């Protein structure tokens, strides 16, 4: 089909706008990467925008060699894996149970759950509740409060209700119980939706700094994003170096004289962002297929 002159102009404008949008998104990432790979003292003089002028890996040696950062990285990975898997299992089980229209008090339960999504008690009552449950300063403060997501439950519920009833009825006629129906019919058909919601949940866990900043005071339990938040507000590089032998050796080296707090910050940002950026493209295809189908089918 031949495009008219107006359609060609419109297409060109759209391409240019999208290209500018891509540049605006990619440039900050490339800038931080260039700073993190550049000598700190050299970068402080300015003029480093996209390509490192004085290439060095000392910033990453310091970051990856720091015991606090390594530990916070492990905490973040653990909470992301456990929190995502646990959250999907709990939320799916609740959505599957509420998908049965004959469930007693089903409407009342759904209304109660909806109210919790629209209103909450606030931060102070939530903090008091966590304290009473003994979750403060524990790893489980990252996991248990987020095991159930109301929004994800409604998406799953709509998706499950969109599965043809004939499939479930056929399974029940063959003697399948609720657990077998869930494992052999619902879950296999829900993989795109579970992948999409799983990625949303994982990104939420990975990027969360709030819980570590307000509910945890033990530095050995803070996630990497909370450490990054503390680092961004730090004014001294000693907040990063700590006191382990590796850092003391680096402090005595001549290279250490060229390290700046900004270059360390950029290296920590890159280390904390790269893993989730690497996972995202592999699951991106499930977004529209999983989330939209679960949202619009009634």
Automatic annotation (TrEMBL):
Keyword Transmembrane: yes
Record has Cell membrane as a keyword: yes
Major location (coarse): membrane
Cellular component annotations (GO), alphabetically ordered: plasma membrane
Compartments reported by the entry: Cell membrane
Pfam family, one: BPD_transp_1
Transmembrane segments: 12-34, 73-97, 109-128, 140-160, 262-283
Keywords of this entry: Cell membrane, Membrane, Transmembrane, Transmembrane helix, Transport
Domain ABC transmembrane type-1 positions: 69-277
GO biological process: transmembrane transport
Membrane topology note: Multi-pass membrane protein
Superkingdom, natural source: Bacteria
Alphabetized PANTHER family for the sequence: ABC TRANSPORTER PERMEASE PROTEIN MG189-RELATED-RELATED (PTHR43744), POLYGALACTURONAN_RHAMNOGALACTURONAN TRANSPORT SYSTEM PERMEASE PROTEIN YTCP (PTHR43744:SF9)
Annotated family: Belongs to the binding-protein-dependent transport system permease family.
Name the record gives this protein: Carbohydrate ABC transporter permease
């Amino acid at each position: 089909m031949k495009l008219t002159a107006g359609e060609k102009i419109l297409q060109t404008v759209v391409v240019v706008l999208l290209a500018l949008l891509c540049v605006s998104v990619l440039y900050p990432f490339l800038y931080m990467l260039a700073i993190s790979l550049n000598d700190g003292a050299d970068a402080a003089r300015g003029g480093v925008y996209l390509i490192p002028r004085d290439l060095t890996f000392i910033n990453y040696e310091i970051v990856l060699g720091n015991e606090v950062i390594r530990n916070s990285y492990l905490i973040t990975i653990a909470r992301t894996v456990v929190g995502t898997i646990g959250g999907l299992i709990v939320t799916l089980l609740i959505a599957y149970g509420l998908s049965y229209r004959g469930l007693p008090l089903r409407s009342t339960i759904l209304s109660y759950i909806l109210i919790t999504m629209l209103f909450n008690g606030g931060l102070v009552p939530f903090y008091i509740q966590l304290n009473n449950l003994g979750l403060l300063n524990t790893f489980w403060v990252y996991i248990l409060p987020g095991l159930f997501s109301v929004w994800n439950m409604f998406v799953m519920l709509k998706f499950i209700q969109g599965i043809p009833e004939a499939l479930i009825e056929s399974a029940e006629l063959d003697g399948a119980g609720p657990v077998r129906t869930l494992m052999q019919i619902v879950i296999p058909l829900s993989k795109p939706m579970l992948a999409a919601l799983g990625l949303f949940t994982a990104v939420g866990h990975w990027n969360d700094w709030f819980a570590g900043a307000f509910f945890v005071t033990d530095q050995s339990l803070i996630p990497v994003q909370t450490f990054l938040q503390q680092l961004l507000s730090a004014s001294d590089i000693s907040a990063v170096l700590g006191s382990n032998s590796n850092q003391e050796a680096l402090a005595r080296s001549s290279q250490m004289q060229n390290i700046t707090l900004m270059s360390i910050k950029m290296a920590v940002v890159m280390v904390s962002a790269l893993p989730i950026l690497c996972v995202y493209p592999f699951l991106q295809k499930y977004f529209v297929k999983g989330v939209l189908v679960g949202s619009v089918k009634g």
